[in-house]
Specification:
By secondary structure, the protein is an all-alpha fold. It has eleven helices and no strands. 71% of the residues lie in helices and 0% in strands. It is globular, with a radius of gyration of 19 Å.
């Protein structure tokens, strides 16, 4: 098999697994969260049923909605699919690997956030504007912290390419690096904020004082709402794969390694299952914080990421 065909198959498999498996990851996290809270757990396939129902419903759009409101769900969904495509979740030999730069990845998340916020304000409702302002506040504070986390791994491996980061860290001896330890804690805090999870946001709430993500999508329905919910699951999947690629890269196949590809998918599913359970545990053990405490929370994440960067420069570890 030629190298190009192998790379194309690896890329296609990664995209299919992300698009098809992202709602399953969301369902698994919701199940674990319900079990830990001693509640009746929803079905594991409930996100798929919800998407199926929404795609068959009619999309109701406000009369004063512009074209931006209609096109935003497609742009957000496309950006999240591309983000999942450039993250080396199964293999580092990907056609999109040259574009898998840390800064480009953060740019995709920022692009999706900007269009979601603009669409939320397009109708002119109070809830949409409220959610958009809160979303931009979270993004303004979370993106620098995420960049510092990625730069810590980049300086450790002398490359901003995610594929090179995975290959370099994967070949190192198994040890605890203080810089990556600080970066890992910061990345966890950023992931909670970026994916609208407790303690920053609660995906199950519709209270005016607490909701961020839900406030922006109240005016959407039908296929538009389905694409946004699917994109939210893809974002959680992408962040999970970023964390696994940087901090637990073992099991990801390298260039032209068919045996590694066969083992990479089960390894990824196992790591995502463990990560989803840990995410549910963190949410259950945490309390929803006030919106005005979110800057302090994300400032702490940024500080931890910077400390990780300084530890690398001062101690070389």
């Amino acid at each position: 098999m030629s190298s190009y065909i192998y790379s194309a198959l690896a890329q296609l498999l990664a995209l299919v697994l992300a698009v098809a498996g992202a709602p399953l990851l969301t369902g698994w996290v919701n199940q674990c969260r319900a079990w830990l809270q001693n509640k009746g757990a929803p079905p594991l396939l409930l996100p798929y049923r919800t998407l199926h129902k929404l795609f068959y419903k009619e999309s109701v759009v406000a009369e004063n909605a512009s074209g931006l409101f209609r096109v935003a769900p497609y742009i957000v969904f496309g950006a999240m699919v591309l983000a999942c495509g450039i993250v080396p979740s199964l293999s580092t030999d990907l056609p999109l690997a040259p574009a898998a730069d840390a800064i480009a990845l953060v740019g995709l998340f920022a692009l999706a956030r900007v269009f979601m916020s603009l669409a939320a304000m397009d109708i002119g409702t109070a809830f949409g504007t409220l959610g958009a302002r809160r979303e931009m506040l979270v993004g303004f504070l979370a993106e620098p912290a995420l960049l510092m986390v990625l730069f810590t791994a980049a300086f450790l491996t002398q490359s901003t390419s995610l594929a090179n980061i995975v290959e370099t860290i994967g070949h190192r001896e198994l040890a605890i690096y203080p810089s990556l330890a600080f970066a890992g804690v910061a990345f966890t805090m950023v992931s909670l904020a970026e994916n609208a999870r407790v303690p920053v946001d609660n995906p199950a709430t519709h209270l005016e004082l607490t909701m961020i993500h839900e406030a922006m999508i109240l005016e959407y329905s039908g296929r538009h709402l389905a694409l946004i919910e699917w994109a939210a699951s893809l974002k959680l999947f992408a962040y999970s794969c970023i964390g696994l690629a940087i901090f637990f890269p073992w099991g990801i196949a390298e260039v032209q390694n068919p045996v590694g590809m066969l083992l990479a998918a089960p390894a990824l599913i196992l790591k995502l299952a463990v990560g989803g359970a840990l995410l549910a545990l963190i949410e259950t053990a945490s309390a929803k914080m006030r919106i005005f405490r979110v800057p302090e929370f994300l400032a702490g994440a940024f500080l931890l990421a910077v400390i990780g960067l300084l530890v690398h420069f001062l101690l070389g570890a």
